[in-house]
Amino acid sequence: MIVRSFPKLNTALASPLISPLVQTGIKTGIKSGINEAKFPTSSALLPEQDGQVDVPINDIEGAGLRDQLVDWGIGLQPKGTLGEGTGVNPFTNVKEEISNLDSEMLRLIDTKPSALKEAAGYFWGLRSGGKKIRPAVLFLISKSLPSTGATVLPTQRRLACITEMIHTASLFHDDVIDKGEIRRGNKTANEMFGNKMAILGGDFLLAKASVSLARLRNLEVTELMSGVIEHLVRGEVMQIKGGGGLDGYLGKNFFKTSSLIANSAMSTAILGDAPAEYVRESYLYGKYLGNAFQLVDDVLDFEGNVEVLGKERYGDLRSGLATGPALFAEETRPEMRELRLRKFRGGGDIQRALDIIYSTDAIERTKDLARVNAEMARDVVEGWGGERDALRELCRIVVDREK
Ligand code: FPP
Ligand code: MG
């Protein structure tokens, strides 16, 4: 019999098929009152019942939307604890790891024909290669786990690459769908190489990310990160279909934005053999930060500086999307509903929607919800050591950012 051996990133970390750590984590979670439905579990860990394996409960459908909304902070007022800034620069603390990321990813996608690598790696060759918030979160969490100390393990570095590759693939596809022309101040991949190469470049990134994920040899992490790809697609389709009001919007935000940050954060804690509470808190930190991030993005579409953002305002309304500001406005101005349902396509609809939004406190309410989520993320890591201050400062930066 031929036994194939695969290169291991870190032999010490080679995980058994079902990590006892995560089993304990889930048991501990349930015991300590974590709502099981809000915390992703791996189907591999669930008992077979009557010949059927339970499906993982890691999305809002199983959770009950109302519970999830409370969890998102609806109805809460921000405590105002994000403050003025602490002077800590979270990106400085992981500068080295981030500066190596692009070249590591380019190595992972080395292939022939070279046109494929050129398209897939296009963003990483550019000077403004993005904010790198996702890898920064992962590196900071990795450096804060009591089990590994101030280091980022090779498996955790690889996970950061995988996360950024999935994110980049989703942007390539999104820009084809949205007919986007400019991203991060540069031409989009579809503008640069055409739709076909942009889609194939995205597919290739996903394929390479999947191979790298499998090579981590960790079932829980594989399941969590594969689930994220499903979530991204579901979120994009929810956005295209619209509907569902504020509930649908927040659900879409989770799938499109928060799931990747939450599940990769949880995965880096699993790879770092972290105690169960750190695994759970990493997930929650990522989820709340992701929620805040998307809400701020949606506010910037109304209030952002055109020069700084490199795009015109009101792009969401123009493409038929009702985000936080329109949806909160609808709560007091029900006439917004009609505009929303026809995707702001009637003559004068956009101006009408803007008049309604600006005559209410809807933008402020969207900002408040972003602040509540950022504060929840900040509170989750309060008891941590390591890069705790940087993680907390990142919450403020996400809320105060201009782009
Ligand atoms: C940006 O949205 C897009 C996303 C966050 C995810 C898009 C997901 C897909 C296209 C599904 C396919 C997924 C994969 C993994 C291939 P936006 O248009 O709201 O923001 P923008 O202003 O940055 O374009
Ligand atoms: Mg887009």
TrEMBL record:
GO biological process: isoprenoid biosynthetic process; ubiquinone biosynthetic process
Pfam families linked: polyprenyl_synt (PF00348)
Source organism of this protein record: Triparma columacea
CDD domains per record: Trans_IPPS_HT (cd00685)
Keywords: Isoprene biosynthesis, Magnesium, Metal-binding, Transferase
GO cellular component labels: transferase complex
One Gene Ontology MF term: metal ion binding
Required co-factors: Mg(2+)
Protein name: Uncharacterized protein
PROSITE patterns linked to this entry: POLYPRENYL_SYNTHASE_2 (PS00444)
InterPro entries for this protein: Isoprenoid_synthase_dom_sf, Polyprenyl_synt, Polyprenyl_synt_CS
Family named by the database record: Belongs to the FPP/GGPP synthase family.
